[in-house]
Amino acid sequence: MPSPSPDLNIETSREDATPRILHLRRGGTSVVVDLDASPTPAIVHWGEELDEATPRTLEGLARAAQPQRVSGGLDATARLTVLATPAGSWLGTPALEGHRAGAGFSARLALAGVQSDGHRATLALVDAEARLAAQIELRVGPSGLFHQRVLLRNTGDTPYTVQALQLAFPVPWDATEILDTTGRHLRERSPQRRDFTFGTHLRESRRGRPGADATLLLAAGRPGFGFETGRVHGIHVAWSGNHRTLAERSVTGEAFLAGGELYGPGELILASGEQVASPWVIGSWGDGLSELSHRFHDEWRARPQHPRRPRPVTLNTWEAVYFDHDLARLTALADAGAEVGAERFVLDDGWFHGRRDDTAGLGDWTVDEDVWPQGLHPIVNHVRSLGMEFGLWVEPEMVNPDSDLARAHPDWILRGRPELPPSARQQQVLDLAHPEAYAYIAGRLHALLDEYDIAYLKWDHNRDLVDAGTGPEGEARVHAHTLAVYRLLDELRAAHPGLEIESCASGGARVDLGILDRTDRIWTSDSLDPLERLSNQRHTALVVAPELMGMHLTSPVVHSSGRTVDLALSASVALFGHFGIEWDLTKTDESTRARIAEWVALAKRLRPLVAQGRTIDVDGTEPGIDVRGMVAADSASAVFTIVQTQTSIAYPAGRVRMPGLDPSRSYRLRVLDLTPPHGAGQSNLTWAEHDTVLSGRQLAAIGVRPPVLHPQTAVVVELIATD
Ligand code: DGJ
Predict the structure, then answer these.
(1) What pTM was estimated for this model as a whole?
(2) Residues of the chain with pLDDT under 50
(3) Exposure check for the chain: N or C terminus, fewer CB within 10 A?
């Protein structure tokens, strides 16, 4: 089913005044498009802003990008243009593939019109022979992100099946190293690197959600690029269903990244006159990954719907009680949460009809009468009386075969065959694109939100979509399902102003800017192990602004890894995100709760910095030491954490740098004293014992001796400008 999308409003005649070269620029980025490239325009530059460019030099740039004719090749050497296809001489991965019931495979769209206004352009493309029209939208955002999307319309009178539709982003030829992310449950967004050699590095998501192994960012840069240095370009597909990203280097001298939605067989058949919009594919670049990621953070923060009020410290019940819902126990947990300063209490899985464990109940979204004879009113009222917001866990897209819903409407379950698809967590997926299924789920959610004072939904999604369709002989449904989820989220937010929603999917298996355009945070991972979280959070922040990433204190023995960790480590690692707690506080003693309260108070004090500041990741620290920080937008202050993940070889370790501050300002350093000394700690550490002031340049280039710490401990250092 094609998506609703803006109308194709194509100017079909190209006017004489159309400039030959388009120069889009904003936020430190330039995109230069040669409109005369054949058969469609070619992006001849995406990257640093060309302030000095004149019409003459832009023309020169376009000429400089043109390939020579070489032996053994096409007479017009293959070239990467927008919406490149074989009929247009492109022999790499095509941007568009499709057909009309097995015929009419060829497409060669040509420029038919251009609209542009400085940082935005729309290129109208037409292929009269193939009876296709396309509109490529190019936009450079306020922080220099480069957005591309394509609208494709079938102008013929027979159906056109779209097999592939993706957008290409050329990268410099000397970008010879690739970084992307992969992962699994409890270890999402693990980075991997490889040489960017000739051929295609293809990453696909076929799970109906991005998945724990998703490529959040596919980046290519100069060899050895890190967070602080090295020119690097990367793309993200802002889509929550199946998608693909690829990096390709051709022997005709083109290197590019490309991305788009991945359509199932026959999933996208455009009827006569029908059109589809691709997801936005978003590119960023920088000298170092930090600069690249700051463009994502800044632009996301500038959206009108961005959550701006201080992120409420969240107490989530999952690891505290799991399915053991009991009013007295949860009331006591809420009391303990309020005592340590929590501001939001989220009742996780287990509250609804028949849900005593994870084998039953999904789909039956009424409050369980046995466990909650008075509904959720007693717990909601108690939480509200403590001054906390109430949040509720839901998993609206899912259904357990053991549920009243599945028994009543087996036809609402996605499947490709008579039997159900392979089971996962004993559950199946509802066909949300089915109008009645959608109406039922929407109705239940509205009813809950109307009945209870719910400020927040934790929206979970605990399985991959497998063989997802409308039944035997039916249609593939991931595309339609993804759009239905977006519609439902949009409708709920419109109907319940102020409602916040978290995107959770077995931890962090649905993290993308499509879902984050209509939700307020992601659950970053089910792993609460602070050591495992270091890499997960660092690489999630490549695209996601830190205040949108749920980071919770773990109980002392981490449930997912069995590791015993100290509160100070867990809290230090959770500081640079949306802070929360996932721990049965009723089992803690008073002094532990007092310590937790201190960390909560610190998280509250630092949250404006986290919400507006720049994330800093420090390259080149020795194995065993992790240094990262948040620097205030006005550079007047910063906080860094130094985490000793394992023992270092150097003893004491060499100096660690704290970059990102104003080089010309001076900063007073202070180790926050709620971090208890571990190992030698701060004693004998001269800079920590004295009033020590360093310039931003000295901190960035030279640094300080880190305290000698036991493995798995951390310190927090605050830096305040002295002026
Ligand atoms: C997976 C989530 O990631 C957890 O936080 C929790 O909400 C469970 N699902 C509940 O089933």
Answers:
(1) 0.96
(2) 1-18
(3) C
